[in-house]
Amino acid sequence: MSLDALREQLPAYAKDTKLNLGNLASDDSLDEQKRWGTFLSCAIAGRNPDVIKAIAAEAKEKLSEEAFTAAKAAAGIMSMNNVFYRFGHEAGNEVYKTMPAKLRMTIIGNPGVEKVDFELWSLAVSSINGCFMCVDSHEAIVRKAGLTSEQIQTAVRIASVVQAASVIVGAETALEG
């Protein structure tokens, strides 16, 4: 399945999502690696197999093998970190914020692609997963690396639209069965 096939699969009530997917796929405010790595990492974060397959098929054509792997790694490591750091923020007990994580997360330091790209993908996934601390941290890193507010917003727009597609496709699949 391709992105176009995914767009065609969306029902009439999801016309906005369909149009937004198409517009974001060609948005040139992010270079191809940043854009398609964001699409892929967010599809994985959205957890819908059909959306993951469609976006992965398209991303395989646009990304190097290293970037494809790094985008998957961003989704994976953020699925762990977002839970851990969100707990520390939400628990209401300040002691958790001072304790060391004691979790291996070396991929962040050596992701196999430009660090700014990996951080952008981590920011987008953290946005989906609702981790304020991770969003804040990754946003500061990509800003320091020179990304503009427009570029950051584009990544989060991709996250929001891919998440919407994941929800819609999942709902339609459930309602059919």
From TrEMBL:
One of its GO terms (biological process) is cell redox homeostasis. The active site is at C131, C134. Residues 99-168 form the Carboxymuconolactone decarboxylase-like domain. It catalyses: N(6)-[(R)-dihydrolipoyl]-L-lysyl-[lipoyl-carrier protein] + a hydroperoxide = N(6)-[(R)-lipoyl]-L-lysyl-[lipoyl-carrier protein] + an alcohol + H2O. Disulfide bonds join C131-C134. Keywords: Antioxidant, Disulfide bond, Oxidoreductase, Peroxidase, Redox-active center. One of its GO terms (molecular function) is hydroperoxide reductase activity. Its EC number is 1.11.1.28. Coiled coil: none annotated. Belongs to the AhpD family. PANTHER family: ALKYL HYDROPEROXIDE REDUCTASE AHPD. Antioxidant protein with alkyl hydroperoxidase activity. Required for the reduction of the AhpC active site cysteine residues and for the regeneration of the AhpC enzyme activity. NCBIfam families: ahpD, ahpD_dom. This is Alkyl hydroperoxide reductase AhpD. It comes from Parvularcula mediterranea. The gene is ahpD.
